[in-house]
Amino acid sequence: MAFTLYSLLQAALLCVNAIAVLHEERFLKNIGWGTDQGIGGFGEEPGIKSQLMNLIRSVRTVMRVPLIIVNSVAIVLLLLFG
Amino acid sequence: MATAAMAYGSSIASHGKDMVNKELHRFVSVNKLKYFFAVDTAYVAKKLGLLVFPYTHQNWEVQYNRDVPLPPRQDLNAPDLYIPTMAFITYVLLAGMALGIQKRFSPEVLGLCASTALVWMVIEVLALLLGLYLATVRSELSTFHLLAYSGYKYVGMILSVLTGLLFGSDGYYVALAWTSSALMYFIVRSLRTAALSPDSMGGPSSQQRVQLYLTLGAAAFQPLIIYWLTFHLVR
């Protein structure tokens, strides 16, 4: 597999898009991954599942606006250069 | 007129240099980076020997000097970024030479090889960071530490390719097996003392199990990537 730096950027953009489209109410709650279902108290270390849910929620919150910009740039570049 | 222009030009240059420095300091903490390049010849020689034959080394702890880790000049166990950087560049040049021997060389191939290896290293560091975050390991391992430990595999790759070029395909597989096992032993011992010792008392056993799986996974990934990045060079 011969990678270029550009394919890495493309793959990263697609992965972040995939995380961003996971809808909170319609999907994550139905499989038990909603962020208000996982807080297990203030005791010991949070488990892997709650860390993962926190990560998904923070990625969605933080990357919403930059993703719009980066996706628009990618669309324009792909239209121009194929 | 010329002196005024020169003075103006030099003031512009110094202003530009300050701006670049400021921007660079925002992204990369240069002092932390300098720690990883504070090496000397004896350290490099001993570290290379350790990478090839780690089985007799007894003490794997990183030594501290009042809560500050000692630089690599004074501590053999400290990770550095000099060896991985030089090994990466040597690997790219060696790949070009190996492809030239097989008459498959062109200048684009060199850039492709370099960016492929770089992309795999980025993927590995990101996977390790994700694993460390999910397992809530509170340790000293920063991104540069993980970059250093991921970069040590290039030494094994160079040795495998050299042996393959000198002794043919059998030599390549023998060198691959030897360097893979040495590297796996090295990674497991180093990461166990670096990642687990500050937190080995606390946490339920499931956390420690996850950390163990993480270390073993990182170690098992090394031979695969060494084979993947070098087998097309030794036909």
UniProtKB/TrEMBL annotation, chain A:
Residues passing through the membrane, by range: 62-81
Cellular compartments annotated: Membrane
Keyword Zinc-finger: no
Keywords: Membrane, Protein transport, Signal, Transmembrane, Transmembrane helix, Transport
Example of a GO biological process term: endoplasmic reticulum to Golgi vesicle-mediated transport
Record's signal peptide: 1-18
Pfam family, one: Yos1
Source taxon at top rank: Eukaryota
Annotated GO CC locations: COPII-coated ER to Golgi transport vesicle; endoplasmic reticulum membrane; Golgi membrane
Keyword Membrane listed: yes
Coiled-coil portions: none
Protein family according to the UniProt entry: Belongs to the YOS1 family.
Protein name: Immediate early response 3-interacting protein 1
Originating gene: IER3IP1
TrEMBL record, chain B:
Keyword terms, alphabetized: Endoplasmic reticulum, Golgi apparatus, Membrane, Protein transport, Transmembrane, Transmembrane helix, Transport
GO BP: endoplasmic reticulum to Golgi vesicle-mediated transport; protein transport
Residue ranges of the TM segments: 81-103, 109-134, 146-166, 172-191, 212-230
Superkingdom, taxonomy of origin: Eukaryota
GO cellular-component term (any): endoplasmic reticulum-Golgi intermediate compartment
InterPro entries documented for this protein: Yif1_fam
Topology term for the membrane: Multi-pass membrane protein
Localisation: Endoplasmic reticulum membrane; Golgi apparatus membrane
Function: Has a role in transport between endoplasmic reticulum and Golgi.
Family: Belongs to the YIF1 family.
Name recorded for this polypeptide: Protein YIF1
Organism annotation: Heterocephalus glaber (Naked mole rat)
Gene: Yif1a
